[in-house]
Protein: Glucokinase-like ROK family protein
Amino acid sequence: MLASLRFNGAQAAAELAAQVSLSRSKIGQELGRLQELGFVERAGKAASQGGRRSGLVQLSRRLRFVGVDIGATSLDVGVTDGLLELVAHTSEPIDIKDGPDAILGRAVEVIDKLRAEGHLPALNGVGVGVPGPVSFRDGFTVSPPIMPGWDRYPVREHFTQQLDCPVQLDNDVNLMALGEMYCGLARSVPDFLFVKIGTGIGCGIVTGNRVLRGSNGSAGDIGHIAVHDTGPVCGCGRTGCLEAWFSGASLSRDATALARGGESPGLHELLGDRDALTAHDVGIAMRHGDPQALGLVRDGGRRLGRVLAGLVNFANPAMIVVGGGVAGLGHPLLAEVRSELYRRSTPLATSTLPIALSELGEHAGVVGAAALISDQVFGAGPTP
Amino acid sequence: MLASLRFNGAQAAAELAAQVSLSRSKIGQELGRLQELGFVERAGKAASQGGRRSGLVQLSRRLRFVGVDIGATSLDVGVTDGLLELVAHTSEPIDIKDGPDAILGRAVEVIDKLRAEGHLPALNGVGVGVPGPVSFRDGFTVSPPIMPGWDRYPVREHFTQQLDCPVQLDNDVNLMALGEMYCGLARSVPDFLFVKIGTGIGCGIVTGNRVLRGSNGSAGDIGHIAVHDTGPVCGCGRTGCLEAWFSGASLSRDATALARGGESPGLHELLGDRDALTAHDVGIAMRHGDPQALGLVRDGGRRLGRVLAGLVNFANPAMIVVGGGVAGLGHPLLAEVRSELYRRSTPLATSTLPIALSELGEHAGVVGAAALISDQVFGAGPTP
Structure:
């Protein structure tokens, strides 16, 4: 019922009753209960249809969900209302390697600050995303390669104890997919892939409107698919992995090397006396026509496209959404991905396959995290 | 209720009522209706538990489902009872290129023959598998690359008209996966991949006990994933596809070339004055210690393993089942697949991942086809 109000907005009690197959008397009881809990409120009268005008109900405007998106190098916290509209958002740099005590402590501080600023008249639930595999049932991370100190740390419990509200934990890319499914490009698409290109590369898989997490929560771990027999050594210890060839981290590494080696005057100038260039710098240089920067992006797009071509043959999605910080490289990257994908996948799988940039952009993670916990609190929705 | 009887065997009406949440009076009505339809029958009394001994019901022993497994070069027809136990099975060579009229006509003849032999006291439904993409909803094949003349041919309607019973059509590999899920190795595994190595290579994907068919029915089409930039020209017109490098057809091609070129005395002798060697011949030569034959199998296993490694990172299945005719190559093939898979996938995804040969073997397709239509007739089960 709450999910129906989220999806359809304010409705008459009679309409709602029909939708959830409750009798007239039962719906009154149930709405009374939800009103007491602070989940719904009255919203004036419906337009008359000849008879007595019936009262409308809607989700309470005081409902608030918090999405916490913990990345390798950033902490984003967003507040949404019951309709998953973002009402506040903060972002700050972190280093995931500082460990769970420091990072989770900071996340709670940010939430407290948002509360002090009046953004949280209520706190109905918190969704949390982390950049590694998660045991969804247990609410902790499992062997996260880039998160030393986080293995099996009880993240969900930490928030539950500190904030005294329902909490759910998931992998950050799954949450970005969920955000795009509820509020972004993929609203009407039951089967799609969300590809996040950030420090590493990951993929959220949605089939039949459900996030596919796999047998132990590591589904979508495409950054470690081998694209060559050899290549730069990856963070996972092997060679040839996609993200060792192309990701925010590898762009930074390769661009910095080109700048230092003098191959690219443009990148050299951008580097100045800094330690390293970023993927963002590569984008700037590329837009200024630097051929080396463009080459890095094209090579990366081709490798990503090659991996996606295999996954498209395998999963036959109806759409691919590309997000994460490096997605800001935009058109030249997507053009290369598309070209490789259309060349290497079967025509049946690609003939109507759009490949598009995330609509929610940097907000996808926090909105998806709010959607996750909102589904649990509302006892409905396609996930988990 | 019928699915429960299939899964649990004979049960007392009271037990059944509790399982499907029906009142005592409603269950009597419903069982009466199912008995009239010929779906259930009485099966003696339950052991006394102090009170009145209640009557047991079970699936009618006269229930029969037919599974038709149309391959590129073979037509298999199986008959199962209501419990999906195989009670009859026939297999004969065909050429899928003869087109739908010839092949489907022959399938109906075979079913008529099985009926004449007394194997079909009833015909409660027919499941049909074809070696190409299928529009599951429409009951026809879609752009099947190796099936000229079959595009959008109304296969389901053909059988419905000829046999006057419920019919469902699916891709053959999806059906093999379904067979293994109901009656084989994967009985207790909600997420697994079924890899068929026959003339070509395909994959059935089961997630959460459901077959994943993708947005237009082509999910699992892994034979056309590129393993190299170049390679033998594939039936699809591109180069580098997995099945152009390794499949029943490519083993036949490569072994025949080795035999003719004189590189392998063993293969040369096996060839004799035949036109070509088969994958089966390669197995024979390999077991006789022919190093060239073993080399073909190892190279193929390595390429298959490389593709599967990517899919394991992506989908994180709990098991991989390998079937199809070429699976008969057995241990040397699986050893190479495993080695490549464990080397290239993330440890989290492979630490508890069994890779096993199909338990149902050549029966997987017909049993899966029977399971598909049985689920529809019983109005239950995890598929579709």
Q: What stands out?
A: The domain at 65-181+363-377 of chain A is CATH 3.30.420.40 (Nucleotidyltransferase; domain 5). Chain A is about 40% helix and 20% strand. The CA atoms of residues 233 and 239 of chain A lie 5 Å apart.
